Amino acid sequence: MGIAGLLVPEEYGGAGCGPAELAAVAEELGRALSPHPFLQTAVMAVEALRPCARGDGAGDGAGAVLAELADGAVTATVVLPGDGELRLTGDRLTGEVPYALEGELVLVYAGGALVRAVPSERTAYRTMDESRPLQRLAFHDAPARRLGDGTSWARVRDMGIAALAAEQVGGAQRCLDLAVEHAGRRQQFGRPIGSFQAIKHKLADLLLLVESARSAAGAAAGDPVAAAVAGSYCTEAYLTAAGENIQVHGGIGVTWEHPAHRYLKRATSDAQLFGPPQAHRARLAAHVFGEDAR
């Protein structure tokens, strides 16, 4: 379907789409709990490489990598500053990244540059949310090819937050849909439980939460303030929707046979991916009130 190249410029074989298309696709992937590496490959890696590409469609420069990503030939992950203790010396990288999203090609921001690095060791984790694999990366004087400068990392992070927020909206919407469906089908005292006021209010509150999260996610791409808002609000909205979905379902909601637990696991892991909601709010405060905000 060309989803891998959604954000890749047309000259490198992609669709050349923007934030609106990104949000629509990410929301549907989040609704389905897709295990595909869309976030790290089609969003963050592409966003990291785009400013580095200068018509180098051949060879192994940024443009060539973009073409590979657009074709779906390779997956990628991005290591942001602060994700690990790394030292770039010439064309060699040393250090460790405790947690990184899974990807074949590794792009690293280190030493003021964006480099393509070959890990000396990879260790896969058995995660609570098995649909979002994580790995440990170790670099022991590992070869690293410079692709560009490292000034774009904040924008890459914010695009990742925007895509994740859209995924969270999709997951939260699915949780609401499952809860509404169950409330209309499950009978107690001869009536659907959705006719009881307590359930009505719970579902109405969730609807407001999900729609507000959708608005926050839609504004997130390309704006660091809006990204911080979405990172905080959409994370908490998804956690709430996933938890309330289990409550509405009752006993069946806590069994492995029902998919409700998968959404709660994804919501919980998403809440740590780019930092917890408190970290986003602290970054938002710095933007709004200045660097000295407490």
From TrEMBL:
Segments forming domain Acyl-CoA dehydrogenase/oxidase N-terminal: 1-37
Top-level taxon of the source organism: Bacteria
Record-annotated Acyl-CoA dehydrogenase/oxidase C-terminal domain positions: 162-288
Keyword Glycosyltransferase: no
InterPro entries membership: AcylCo_DH-like_C, AcylCo_DH/oxidase_C, AcylCoA_DH/ox_N, AcylCoA_DH/ox_N_sf, AcylCoA_DH/oxidase_NM_dom_sf
Keyword Flavoprotein annotated: yes
Cofactor(s) recorded in Swiss-Prot or TrEMBL: FAD
Keywords: FAD, Flavoprotein, Oxidoreductase
Family: Belongs to the acyl-CoA dehydrogenase family.
Protein name: Acyl-CoA dehydrogenase family protein
